[in-house]
Amino acid sequence: MATVEIKNVRKSYGPVEAIKGIDIAVQDGEFLVLLGPSGCGKSTLLRMVAGLESITGGQVVIGGRVVNDLDPKDRDIAMVFQNYALYPHMSVFDNMAYGLKIRGVPKPEIETRVAKAAEILELGRFLTRRPSQLSGGQRQRVAMGRAIVREPAAFLFDEPLSNLDAKLRTQMRIEIKRLQDRLGITSLYVTHDQVEAMTLADRILVMNHGVAEQIGTPLEVYQRPASLFVAGFIGSPPMNVLDGVIDASGQGVVMPGGALLPLPRPRPDDANRPVKLGIRPEHLTISDGLAASPILVELVEALGADTVVYGRLPDGESLLIRMAGLPSCTEGDQLSVAPQPGALHLFDAAHGRRLAD
Amino acid sequence: MSNPTTGPHTTGPHTAGRRLIDLLPHIVLIVGVLIFAFPIYVTLIGSTWDAATIGRGNLPMIPGGEALNNYGHAWSESHTERAMYTPVRIMMMNSVIMALSIAVGKIAISILSAYAVAFFRFPLRMVFFWMIFITLMLPVEVRIIPTYKVVADLGMIDTYAGLSIPLIASATATLLFRQFFLTIPDELVEAAKIDGAGPVRFFFDILLPLSKTNIAALFVILFIYGWNQYLWPLLVTNSADMETIVIGITKMIGTGEAANDWNLIMATTVLAMLPPVAVVIFMQRWFIKGLVDSEK
Ligand SMILES: Nc1ncnc2c1ncn2[C@@H]1O[C@H](COP(=O)(O)OP(=O)(O)OP(=O)(O)O)[C@@H](O)[C@H]1O
Ligand SMILES: [Mg+2]
Question: Would you tell me the Gene Ontology cellular component terms (chain B) (predicted)?
Fold first, then answer.
């Protein structure tokens, strides 16, 4: 067990800069999720920690040791890959035992460690089978067993659940959560699935184009997104983003249709400043009054537990509203909606950073 | 063949036509096999009669009673009243040593060079790869004179080394292994790295076991290639003790000075077929094993 510190780490492929300087210190036993869209550099960052990719700039420190120039095998990490990467010609037992054998762990100890991992992962019945004789979920458990038996300083996961179907993914997600609670090993986990990120993470590192957009707990990232990018990436359906202007008194913000939304705290310094206004679909409710805007209902999606309404504001901008329960309106209806008090997110209109609350 | 009680071919109006279509491939195959097998059958029969019977020109189509005599003679005797021969047991050993050295040597060298080309980044990697590739275009016969000169200068005439080493370099096998290695997912290589396997361990623990079926297939092909070598052994062997069986058979036929001992030639030929057949049969078990627990 150990901390993993990433200090101003950069990666260039020739002229292309894939990672543009990322800083984070992962605490001992912490579960950090790297979240971001495809191509943002999540795998690259993870592979630099693993030692599979050279580090162009900065330092990676595992357990207090700078590992930049160490081989993967000397970094005391274990990795779980998306496509399992099990040795096809070895039995499940041998797959898990291989790393220990190479490290010269005595045979009886190998056997107890593998038996223990197999018990945790419920793989006992499969120890003599080949990977080809297992289902996808079982293979992924073997891959995890291979990491567990090593008792490493840190686990690295690169989209370990992406090859599984939706149901199995949910199940494995819960298993990983339980495993982490039980073993408490520092983990770095790459995914582009925000549900995985929200449920597994102690902290999330949201990445975009090789930079860290935000580092925070799942709730921080959801409740106080640091940028428009994070606001749009976390949450489903995504946050509504509208153009607004802070009024002359700094007490409220004017929506395109003219509605005046009160601000949580007055901002006299920002009077008349144009802003981007973020409102989560679940924070809009049907109501009248000064803060309400009229919308035309264009589409209603009934999801059972809740309903998503696609509406259009008078000036043509679209607005998503998520309501609990079954639909209470139909296409073509006119509604009047307003955000719940205090549920506004303000972003700078030019660079998209969150305005200080 | 489809099950006659449940198969779709036995019902419906087209039964007779269907039968014929079912049978046709079998007929073609049987005729083909007969054409291929007939000369071998004649050889087998011939090896069981005495020289005089065959010499008269009308070889019976049923086995005669001279089998033990012929095979015994061919196996260990070095002469008949007509001519001097190298006994089959010596030629057989020479051929086996040569074919095995070629097959094992080719596989060992090509798997190692393919490993280097496929998994390591080193300066001029592609230059080496293309050099290997270009040698594909030069068959042994083209470079046979210079090769002979080199082997002669090194004093390797009439040695097993001289017989096999010049035939060992193989671009084809290198390419085959390289193509196979490229299908191995990067993650597998990386998983091994993280598990702590260095290049040598990775080769022996992972790459070699995964290449098992490829090696078996190549071994069969290369053993037969080595076994059937003619021109090269003819050049580099002078003494009768180093003769290979393919050379031996051709030497037994037709110096013109005396009638041929056809019974012995045919017995020798039958014996010469046995090792390749044995290799095929033995290696086939490995193929099937590889196919059955098809691994990824
Ligand atoms: N070997 C390479 N040479 C050049 N560019 C590369 C190389 N590997 C990755 N990149 C680039 O680096 C960027 C980050 O790639 P990376 O694989 O880390 O993305 P990712 O966030 O893991 O995406 P995904 O979710 O699709 O796996 C991409 O834009 C990619 O094109
Ligand atoms: Mg990736």
Answer: plasma membrane
Cα–Cα distance between A71 and B30 in angstroms, integer?
61
C-beta separation of B147 from B209 below 8 A: no
Q: Indicate which residue's Cα is closest to atom 25 of ligand 1.
A: A38
DSSP at B202: I
* A195 within some domain: yes
**With contacts defined as CB-CB under 8 Å, which chain A residues touch B294?**
132
Mean pLDDT, residues A163-179: 90
Mean pLDDT, residues A94-119: 95
Containing domain of residue A341, as a range? 238-348
Query: How many structural domains are present in chain A?
Result: 2
- C-alpha span between A340 and A283 (Å, rounded): 6
Q: Is the peptide bond before A238 cis (omega within 30 degrees of 0)?
A: no
User: Which residue's alpha carbon is at the smallest distance from atom 29 of ligand 1?
Assistant: A39
CA nearest to B185 within chain A: A85
Closest Cβ opposite residue A88 in set B193, B205, B210: B210
Predicted confidence at residue A245, as pLDDT, reads 92
Contact B87, B78 (CB under 8 A): yes
Q: Does residue A356 belong to any structural domain of this protein? A: no
Interface of B with A in 196-215 (CB under 8 A): 196-197, 201, 205-206, 209-210, 212
A55 and A123 housed in the same domain: yes
Instruction: Identify whether residues A143 and A226 lie together within a single domain.
Output: yes
A129 and A10 within one domain = yes
* pTM of the full structure: 0.83
